[in-house]
Design goal:
By secondary structure, the protein is of the alpha/beta class. It has nine helices and eleven strands.
Length: 340
């Protein structure tokens, strides 16, 4: 059976940062709440005219290709799985990245699962690699959704941790000893009852942009009914995280007790610790809490993986789970076996 390996990965982070104190000052939320409860010490943000989504993707892609020692001309596929808030609307960031990295023999496509994008994109690409449809693929993602955060809107306070950055992964079929990790099984579940809970009110076909929508600030992220969303999400979120993790592990031939390290979406600190406890993991040594990055959409998993590698928390043979959730609401997991 064809194996799929992660042969290289890279990341990119803008130089500019906002601290928890900065976010507290902008929002009026007490600093201790931002830092301790929301779990945000700092986050990277993009200057207005620099570090557009494709710029960040190209930087991360070049690092990933160098890590994989792969010529971009050998790529068959470039898949973008990051934020829909890109350089332009109704536009293919994947095609732009494909051209700029020199992937002359690849085709470009995009995959959207919002913040659940990383495990879903790996799942989709691995299926193509296993069937022989492609032999080498580049996955890129970036987000600068911090641009869409209105710190004066208390309803959207869960977005105050949104930061900027990018990641890239190279996946190849039958990579042998070149694999940094082997890709296993995946799982996902969606509860569409949350589909309209987090929106940018204006800019789409329901409310096209106008002078009025701009003046009224309707092009920022909003949560129309935050209490209702919280009440409905609280009973299902933990169980759905665990369900997709268990299913992905089972499809990889493992059980929850085999799990060594989890790369989890940034979330409030208390929920992060509870999730790790349910998984039987120590949040200090079996994962990395992203309080120095905030939530960078589907980039979070690579940020957590690289932080674990740098901290010496990953050993050859470790079972790693990319575990994520994206508004809409989709929970997703993909399992990898770390090779080093």
């Amino acid at each position: 059976m064809t194996t799929v390996g992660l042969t290289g990965y890279g990341r990119y982070l803008p130089d500019e940062v906002l601290t928890g104190a900065d976010v507290a000052a902008a929002s009026g939320v007490p600093e201790d709440v931002v830092v301790e409860k929301m779990g945000l010490r700092q986050k990277h943000v993009c200057p207005p005219d620099e570090d557009h989504v494709t710029d960040m993707c190209v930087a991360a892609a070049e690092a990933a290709l160098a890590d994989a020692a792969l010529d971009p001309a050998a790529l068959d596929l470039v898949r973008y799985h990051g934020s829909e808030y890109k350089d332009h609307v109704v536009w293919s960031a994947a095609a732009d990245v494909c051209e700029r990295v020199g992937a002359a023999n690849a085709y470009a496509t995009e995959s959207y699962a919002l913040c659940a994008g990383a495990p879903v994109a790996i799942r989709e690409t691995s299926a193509q690699l296993r069937t022989g449809d492609v032999d080498a693929a580049l996955l890129v993602a970036a987000s600068r959704e911090e641009d869409l955060v209105d710190y004066g809107n208390e309803r959207a306070s869960f977005t105050f941790n949104f930061g900027s950055g990018a990641c890239a992964m190279v996946l190849e079929s039958d990579p042998g000893e070149r694999a940094r990790a082997l890709v296993g099984g995946s799982a996902a579940v969606t509860d569409g009852s949350f589909a309209r809970d987090v929106i940018v009110p204006a800019g789409g076909s329901r409310e096209p942009p106008s002078e009025e929508t701009v003046a009224e600030g309707r092009h920022a992220l909003d949560v129309p009914d935050p209490e209702g969303m919280k009440e409905r999400l609280a009973p299902v979120s933990l169980s759905n995280y665990l369900a997709v993790a268990d299913a992905a592990l089972a499809r990889s031939g493992f059980e929850r007790s085999d799990l060594d390290y989890a790369c989890v979406t940034h979330m409030k600190r208390s929920f992060h610790e509870r999730l790790f406890a349910e998984l039987g993991l120590d949040p200090e040594t079996d994962g990395h809490y992203l309080d120095e990055y905030g939530h960078v959409q589907s980039v979070d998993q690579i940020l957590a993986l690289e932080a674990g590698r740098r901290r010496g928390l990953l050993d050859p043979g470790d079972v790693v789970c990319f575990l994520a959730a994206g508004t809409g609401y989709t929970w997703a997991a993909t399992v990898l076996t770390w090779r080093g």
